[in-house]
């Protein structure tokens, strides 16, 4: 199994690196804004400035940067304020749209000014989600922007001829209102019904419009879709009278091999963990467990609705740390009330060694490839203190939850049931306060993936060490780390 895992990891890395073969990749700084330039040696094509979406970073836009650079463009990615490795917090947050948009537009403008001279003087913009609106706004009154590509766009300011030559790409599985918005924008160039993948208007006068529905993908998958990458490259080629081709950086399969191999590798590695306890856990059957599962899920969002939660300069992170902490405390109280077994003696040195090993694999083993190929995952100095701050919430929840769902006699499917209850609790919090917590909906699918993957780690670690507290400690640190380095920092 270990050999099979290593083969998958090797193949995944080889395919990811092949997409960048022959390109020069240079990291630069535009003031405090981290940016990266992708180009072929001596390339002098148009510059394409590529902007990421909310809670993203420039790594998320690599597929477009590699694809366009292979086609002869000079592609530039960067981190918005409050995102990735940009040390400047984002003004406004979710409460002041004008201030937030102003900061994002200013950052985009500075990157354009600093990098436009790297190509032949012509300029295009590409943005996803939040950034699709930002690149459209920036291009509206700037005719020097020869073309704009907007992924998952909601653009109320778009007109029939501004911005010039606009391509809208939406995932076919995205919400209907985004698909409808794409049809509305493309329809500005034609009096008839809008057909997908049909160009309306004229490139010569900047009125060209097109809608592309990327097949089989949603809001994040649109970044890795062959349809999206090919549509963006072909649109820019038409707008600038070019015929560049080259490799499309369709990396979904390669990422699957890489991270699937890492997941598979965790099982044989878990067999090397030291034995810590005699087989511990609450060991509750469903008859005694159900209040532990559903009580905290109902009470936590109701109590937090009454309390101030804006404590950290981390957008939504401050609410989540309180949600985790209160949920964990309520779960522990419910376990005590139901008479659950308490932890027995454990070998402290072995416990520390096992927890450190599991945490290192979860943070470094997965984190390094995430940093390289998916999104920013390595904390900069201005974010490092947020890791222990988030751990204050994640540690109580993981300790209580892992203990509740493990042990001899534990209820069947207890582990997925408690995770589902927690995610439903988050959705309940959104329903109680949509204006402030709406963006929690975005992280629920990501949290589901995290809990599923680390649930497997936890089961293997528990079986090897004899106590669920090892995995609970390691996973609490891994999730605290992930939230501290990926959630946007804002001005409080």
TrEMBL record:
InterPro entries linked: AB_hydrolase_fold (IPR029058), Carboxylesterase_BioH (IPR050228), Hydrolase_4 (IPR022742)
Annotated GO MF terms: hydrolase activity
Keywords from the UniProt entry: Hydrolase, Membrane, Transmembrane, Transmembrane helix
Membrane spanning stretches: 255-277, 289-307, 319-339, 351-370, 382-400, 412-431, 437-457, 469-491
Residues of the Serine aminopeptidase S33 domain: 47-161
Keyword presence, S-adenosyl-L-methionine: no
Superkingdom classification of source: Bacteria
Protein name: Alpha/beta fold hydrolase
Species: Paeniroseomonas aquatica
Source organism phylogeny: Bacteria, Pseudomonadati, Pseudomonadota, Alphaproteobacteria, Acetobacterales
